[in-house]
Amino acid sequence: MTVTSERTHDPVHRAAMAFERESDERLWVHTWLEPGGHLPEHFHPTLEEHWEVVEGTTRVKVDGTWHALTAADGSVVVGRGVRHELRNDSGEPARLRTLVMPGGRLEEFLRESARAAQEGLYDERNLPTGLRGAAWISDFALRFADETVMCSPPPALQRVLLPVAARLTRRYRP
Hints:
3 helices; 11 strands; globular
């Protein structure tokens, strides 16, 4: 499969991504996960993902259980609403690809998150680094809550705090 977009680098999560959209229903996300790279725990209420390793080894946590994943293992299906995260503890780069169905706005989410990471708006724990970061995070999380929800802080707390934070920090938005 040929990657059809430029890579977007996320220095906070130590990952780069490129995208290939087959249709509105099918998006391929190609991910290069650096040693120590980590995609934090999250879930997608409306998207299903099929993760597979192309090169290297990574660990994937699906619904609370960690699994080692290599190219020989085939794909791991992450259903809608299932919590998952990825981590590269191997000491070597890992290359993965993910089929996302439907494709939704995941490319936009990942590109914007990477841009904010490059600007230093949040840290490795996904916490804002200042008022601009708090403004961005609250707005960003609310705009994409229908497709991607981070698990920290707990989603129930996010539903209460994010709208308030978005209103209070509106003037600081980047």
